[in-house]
Amino acid sequence: MTACLATCVVAGKLGRGGGIFFPFILFFFFLKEALPSVNIENRSNFCEGWKVFRGSPAALPQASLRQPWSPSPGRAGSGAEPGRGLRQGPRRRERTSVGLRQASSLRMDFKIEHTWDEFPVKHEPVFVRVNTGDGGVMMEISAPFFNDPPAPLGEPGKPFNELWDYEVVEAFFLNDITEQYLEVELCPHGQHLVLLLSGRRNVWKQELDLSFKVSRGETKWEGKAYLPWCYFPPNVTKFNSFAIHGSKDKRNYEALYPVPQHELQQGQKPDFHRLEYFKPFSFNTLLGEEWKQPESELWL
Questions:
Q1: What integer best gives the mean pLDDT of the chain?
Q2: Please, which residues bridge with residue 220 across strands?
Q3: CA gap 212, 167 in Å, rounded
Q4: 61 and 195 assigned to the same domain
């Protein structure tokens, strides 16, 4: 209404000649009133997690068991190094912190084929995929479903403390100089646990929010989780992934990069925080050497 009155006043002052400009004036005021204002400062609220990831959590696709995926033969596995385990995707323009560039592949696949002490697993291996995007990383899981132990009592989609006591798949992203690392645990029943550590086993922040979706069948489950860049420590240089299932004496601990058998000591127990066995990893492998990891207020 204010726009209409102002338009009439201006048109009246312009006189008969103003009629020529009247449609343009009317359009200008209508546009000003109709368009909502945008608070650009809200976009800087980066560490609220997956909100700024390309494709909001509301658009997070459900994992589907009808179209399973696996790494390309010979390109991934428990020995994957940076530059290996890459799935070639369609060429597209990807926006990074240093501008636009051509990207031929923006994901890396891993296959957990061994127990923590380097024995072959006796079931279909667990697959872990790392996908990069503008706002962070999408971690995808495709794994056998053992349903042992039973589901945690926590609400699906929410953090659950000590989730490592249940059936989980885990991923660790490490800066091996500072020993700062991100630990992500995903459960086939929908619970999750995200921890930030500074120093071996030294947790300083835990139960962070996570957008996590699961599809589960009788013998297999798949999950998708969005990890915002602010969760990652500066300059991730190494990576490892683990899977756990079973109860009591049938508890199984599996590792992407296990402890070599010739280094095992008598009575040694599984320990996923043996950072010296993690292998080199770099997001620059996917995003290019010019890409810089966004800074995080969580790690300042």
A1: 77
A2: 144
A3: 16
A4: yes
Alpha-carbon span 109 to 76, nearest angstrom = 6
Report which residue type is found at 17.
G
Number of domains within the chain = 2
Task: Assign 31 a pLDDT band (cuts: 50, 70, 90).
Answer: very low
Q: Are residues 82 and 194 in the same domain?
A: yes
Name the strand (E) or helix (H) holding 6: helix 2-14
DSSP state of 156: T
Q: Please check whether residue 40 lies inside any domain of the structure.
A: no
CA dihedral defined by 175, 113, 190, 212, rounded to 10 degrees? Answer: 50
pLDDT digits (tens, 9 = 90+) for 91-121: 343 333 332 233 335 899 999 999 999 999 9
For residue 33, the surrounding DSSP H or E stretch is helix 22-34
Helices (H), 43-123: none
What single letter denotes the amino acid at residue 68?
Answer: P
CA-CA distance, 112 to 125, in Å (whole number)?
A: 6
pLDDT (tens digit per residue) in 264-286: 999 999 999 999 999 999 999 99
Non-local (6+) Cβ contacts of 216 within 8 A are 65, 145, 188, 189, 222
pTM equals 0.71
Distance CA 236, CA 258 (A): 20
Residue 41 resides in a domain: no
For residue 215, being part of any structural domain is answered with yes
Q: Is residue 175 part of a domain?
A: yes
